[in-house]
Amino acid sequence: MIGMHLLAFAAALSVMVPPALTRAGWVYRSPRLGIAAWYATLVAVLSAVVVAVLSWVAPWQGADAAACEMWRWCVLAAQGGYGLAGRMVAAAVAAVGAAMAARVAVTAARVVRAASARRDRHVRMLTLAGRVSPELDATVVDHPRPAAYVVGGPTRRVVVTSGAVDALTGSELAAVLAHERAHAAGRHDLLLDGVRLLEKAFPRVTLFAAARSELCRLVELRADEVATAGHASISLARAIVTMATAASATDGASRPPVFAGALSATGGHAIERLNRLLTPPMPLRPAHRVFIGVGVATVALVPVALGLAAQFLPVLGACPPLMS
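-> structure tokens emitted (324 positions)
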């Protein structure tokens, strides 16, 4: 029974959370909590499915609850009580589970290998074509179009074009670099890589697509928030306008060699970012932050907590095990 409850919990989160978080005002006011909420939802959904599967193969306590009768019929069929047909159904279910696990593993291996190869090629290009600027604490690449981005990986290199150095004022350039360093310090590349992997492994799951889109937006807002803690908001806003204007005025042949999947200073929803920089929202009250943080943590821990509780509360694990 606990497995059915967990799957229902995962389904409810998948349907209800994306629109709720997308519309929530506190997510806009606190992007960091918004990022945590999206990842708590992903962790809760994935762990609920895993714990549900484990609950069906682990020796939960038995009982005679009426709600378990249909599940008891399925278990008996899987154990051979209904002959060959029942075993074939059990084998089909196991095959589907194995196929899903294999799909995740293969997709993860392919995505990680491809991303690592692209990053290594780009780092080699930066080593040959770029120059390290101690004053900027960044790698400068000669290109007329203003651009700045961070390359993920163990080193997380901040890169800026010579066009940005020439086009931006000192305060604007400092704000842009602070934005990119915020991405690097926050490990935003790993946050996005994780949800992109889920989306590629399960392209039909709308939760993963919504999470990827919203996290791409929220990491930019969070990087802006960190950058403007030490630099004027107007400086970063002007830099975004300058770089976005230059980008729209150039064709594909004149684009700088930005690493595919890199976190760029002009990424995210530009209009929303400019509005937020020019008219910052009221920060959440400490009590409000604590309340939301506790709620986010609770959502992430519910599946595992229920799984553990079923070991000590027989009513939660009333359905018979798949394997005895």
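Residues 59-67 have pLDDT under 50 and may be disordered.
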